[in-house]
Amino acid sequence: MQKIWLASGSPRRRELLTQLAVNFDVIKIDVDESQLGNETASAYVERLAKAKAQAGFVAGGAQLPALGADTIVVVDGQVLGKPTDQTDFMRMMRLLQNRSHQVLTAVAIQSAAQLVHTTVCTDVWFGPMTEADMLAYWQSGEPADKAGGYGIQGLAGRFIEKIHGSYFAVVGLPLFETAALLAQIEQKGLA
Predict the structure, then answer these.
(1) Among residues 25, 30, 32, 70, which one is catalytic?
(2) pTM to 2 decimals?
(3) Residue 183: pLDDT band by 50, 70, 90 thresholds?
(4) Is 76 a catalytic residue?
(5) Which of 6, 30, 40, 74 has the fewest CB atoms found within 10 Å of its own CB?
């Protein structure tokens, strides 16, 4: 496949896309990530992925396909974004521990001919965490830029009891589904 744009500043998405042996360049985009009133979690994450792909396609000169993605953490219907401070982070960890939650990752690719997309839902179970565990994790600096305040691929991995679904979607880019979208673009000659 020819080169694509990755409309994301996430180093994790860059690493994961490299695993698919895709030739890409990163393009900077600016998309408002505010959730709309009465917008469901799945509609929200899908809208953001599409908006990022479309913005990347336009910013790149509308010549190459652009891939956009977004990941959110949902517990009891509530979307947990990136923690604003230590207090917000501690609130999130108290909500997540000793139970399951969902991680939704949407991926979209905008080409000259069409927009293709998918959303992957993974159930994640956190085990127990002491207040000292939470504080030490916060002080590591890792949670500050992560949806839901944790990175499964990092230090938080020790608190993850199990997952049901795509590990890579929790990291930020579901590899199987992304490869399928890229193949769909290529097969239809839409690249």
Answers:
(1) 70
(2) 0.92
(3) very high
(4) no
(5) 30
